[in-house]
Amino acid sequence: MVDELTTLCGIDVCAILYSEFHSEPEVWPSPLEVQRIITKFKSYSEVGQERKKLNQESYLMQRIGKSQEKLVKVEKANWEMERSLILFQCLQQENFINTLNTNVLNELAWEINDKLKEITSKMNQLDTNEST
Q1: InterPro entries, alphabetically (predicted)?
Q2: Taking phi first (over 0 means left), then psi (-120 to 50 degrees means alpha), and beta for anything else, what does residue 24 get?
Q3: Does a structural domain hold residue 65?
Q4: Angstrom distance (rounded) from CA 61 to CA 67
Q5: N or C terminus: which one in the chain shows less Cβ crowding within 10 Å?
Q6: Is there a contact between 89 and 81 (Cβ–Cβ < 8 Å)?
Q7: How many CB atoms lie within 10 A of CB 48?
Q8: Domain range spanning residue 23?
Q9: Quick one: pLDDT at residue 31?
Q10: 7 in Cβ contact with 1 (< 8 Å)
Q11: Structural domain tally of the chain?
């Protein structure tokens, strides 16, 4: 696992594993390499060290947070594509709007009203700029 992190992420990684079955800890990749990584880590300021520290829980929480951010972006992009498709189908088929459920219609109405507000605001700005 540690070897994969080093390869995939291109970072220095070491592991020191303690076990009740062994008197000495198991060290990866080698004691000399572990010492080099620890020395490098200790050369950072305290703030830098805190940024670099990562245990399994904080690593997973970080990955979950990034995945959730990605999911929100993908969901937004999907909704924008779906909305465009729905509006296009409404333009092509007059009766298509009758096939949409209330939630979709409400979301579309909200989006349309929001865009109308943006357009009105921009028109007001243009009017203000022209009169000055």
Answers
A1: TF_MADSbox_sf (IPR036879)
A2: beta
A3: no
A4: 10
A5: C
A6: no
A7: 11
A8: 2-53
A9: 86
A10: no
A11: 2
pLDDT tens-digit profile of 99-124? 999 998 898 898 889 989 999 999 99
Q: How far is CA 28 from CA 2, 109, 127, in A?
A: 8, 59, 69
Residue 16 maps to a domain: yes
Answer whether 15's CB lies under 8 Å from 28's CB.
Answer: yes
Cis peptide before 29 (omega within 30 of 0): yes
Helix (H, G, I), strand (E, B) or coil at 23: coil
Q: Determine, yes or no, domain membership for 127.
A: yes
Q: 45 with 20: CB under 8 angstroms?
A: no
pTM of the model: 0.49
Minimal CA–CA distance to 83: which of 101, 104, 65, 103?
104
Partnered with residue 16 across adjacent β-strands are 27
Cβ(27)–Cβ(15) below 8 Å: yes
